[in-house]
Design brief:
Elements (H helix, E strand, L loop, with lengths): L26 E5 L6 H11 L4 E2 L3 E2 L14 E2 L2 H10 L2 E7 L2 E6 H9 L4 E4 L2 H10 L4 E6 L3 H11 L4 H15 L7 E4 L3 H14 L9
Parallel strand pairs: 1-7, 1-8, 2-7, 3-4, 8-9
Antiparallel strand pairs: 3-6, 5-6
Bound molecules: adenosine-5'-diphosphate and guanosine-5'-monophosphate (5GP).
The site of adenosine-5'-diphosphate has 15 residues, from α1, α5 and α7.
Amino acid sequence: MSIESPTASGPASASDQQDPSPHEGRLFVLSAPSGAGKSTLCRILRQRRPALRYSISYTTRPIRTGEIDGRDYFFIDANVFEAGIGTGRWLEWARVHGHYYGTASDFIDRTLAAGNDLLLDIDVQGTEQLVQRYPRAVTIFIMPPSMDALRQRLVKRGTDAPDVIAARLRNARVEMTARFRYRHIVVNDRLDQTVEELLTLMDAAGRPTTAQA
Ligand code: ADP
Ligand code: 5GP
């Protein structure tokens, strides 16, 4: 599989973390195999909850048609990303499908400290690193209704060549085995129902002082 683990400058451990202030925002993490509908769901959740902040990840993968630098991702060179690993710039980072992806620590810390709720779309490896630092994060794994539906969505999306789709489907099987490490598992069958389910779950999630890991 094309998923690798970080080897340097891991995030701070839970023991480094102080208790969050009562006014600190909540952290929502969405993970899913590619094509399950994570980007679509994040977009709708942000429209439905305009106060929800979104962490724009940094990546070294090529920009896709329709994507905008600074809106969908910050697209950066591998040497810049690697320098960031050395300086502890990333709260979490991973290599997924042969490219680096990472979350900027300073944005997350500032946003939560200001009392804003925050949504992240990151992979399984990144989530594991993040919950070390933020054990009260509300982690949600999005499942496709079936492997066949996942394949159809990847084909319909039209952004990936057949060999890339095949690799994403192989990775999906591995990624889905991690779903039980998440607080919530949500099957994205009918989009409108999934959105309502996520909003209910997010609205019910406790503030940092009441939620427990
Ligand atoms: P991801 O970000 O997880 O890779 P996308 O959000 O790009 O996935 O969704 C992949 C494709 O599946 C897109 O064409 C999207 O419109 C479609 N899609 C998303 N959710 C659903 C759903 N519940 N039912 C049918 N198609 C969906
Ligand atoms: P895509 O290239 O299809 O946008 O994303 C590929 C994978 O990278 C998805 O599983 C997505 O959740 C993950 N990803 C996106 N941003 C980050 C990030 O900042 N950190 C980590 N660990 N994974 C990310």
